[in-house]
């Protein structure tokens, strides 16, 4: 048994299979992957890692299993999956995951091949656990996979509280202890027991408030876009494969970017926080459907067109088209008056939060500060944006923004 002092959950006791997994290279690698990627360029204290988060998820999973009365090998499988749920992450967490998926077809929770061989597989088998069964739980499959990856998973409960703690932003505060205590299975589905609509709503509110202030802050979006573009260029211009990139840690990726001629300048910019600026920041309603639905190749072609119209090098233009707003937590099931209902069918708050999500969504066009003016104007024309004259230049910063955009941080 091992007791670890945690900044969020105080003391975490690690025992059994989790104790033996703790010192495997796959888990220790998570010490070198930041939980929030490039968000530390906005919030300097946001340097917590996937390792800390994985310990927190393991701790909450143990609490949930205890309250649900799950014991033995069944509990051990879930505990192992909780600790291992992030070992498939690429460097800087989700920031380069789309690039890897386009080339390998794998997301971070596709971990079967990582568990079959190596020390992780050996430890699991030594404890009488099937690596494939644990990998299925990581992917959210089966009755107990919902605890690790689902609408009411312990992953979400930990990262909201942990991210709020380390950024210093108060919006991620939720009553995770009550949420854990009130989990129950009804017909194989993980739901919140009677009288917990407000507890479920707190997850929605926390996520909705953390998104614009932390996860989608414009500096985080810009730095993530620069890192993503540099990683893509690294794969195009060097012998690195997507599988090799997937298994790097944060320092390893930065070293690789520094050493490649095609990406050295972007690596320097990221390390020195010499970031691109917003040439354009457009709301969802201003963006044509053709742009919203554009695939990766179309986005790259749009960037080249914007650059040509602006008279700048194509590498000086990044077009960031985020996915349409979603709210998976709204499908959370809650017991109400003896019935199991979806939260979005029970709570009028859901629709208001969906509207807030839509209003917070932004398409971004980023470029070096000295060329933002011409790139912004070229982007409006090239993308066919319906700006209606509300595009303005912020003289203090030199970037184009919508009139109602929140201030720089």
Output the structural class: alpha+beta
Low-confidence stretches: 389-409
Instruction: Tell me the span between the first and last alpha carbons.
Output: 44 Å
**Bulk shape:** globular
Helicity level, as a percent range?
Answer: 40-55%
Main β sheet profile: 3 strands, antiparallel
CA radius of gyration is 22 Å
- The average pLDDT value, as a whole number, equals 91
Total helical elements: 21
Report on this model:
With 409 residues, the protein is an alpha+beta fold. It is 50% helix and 12% strand. It contains 21 helices and eleven strands. The strands form five sheets. Strands 5-9-6 form a three-stranded antiparallel β-sheet, with helices on both faces. A two-stranded antiparallel sheet has the order 1-2. The protein has a two-stranded antiparallel ribbon with strand order 3-4. A hairpin with a 2-residue loop joins strand 3 and strand 4. Helix 12 runs parallel beside helix 20, helix 15 crosses helix 16 and helix 18 crosses helix 21. The chain is globular. The C terminus is likely disordered.
Secondary structure topology:
Elements: E1 2-6, E2 10-14, H1 16-21, H2 25-28, H3 50-68, H4 72-84, H5 97-104, H6 112-116, H7 118-126, H8 131-138, H9 145-148, H10 154-167, H11 176-181, E3 183-186, E4 189-192, H12 197-215, H13 218-237, H14 242-246, H15 250-259, H16 264-272, E5 277-283, H17 289-292, H18 296-310, E6 318-320, E7 333-336, E8 339-342, H19 343-346, H20 349-360, E9 362-367, H21 372-383, E10 391-394, E11 399-402
Antiparallel strand pairs: 1-2, 3-4, 5-9, 6-9, 7-8, 10-11
Helix pairs in contact: 3-4, 3-10, 4-8, 10-12, 12-20, 15-16, 18-21
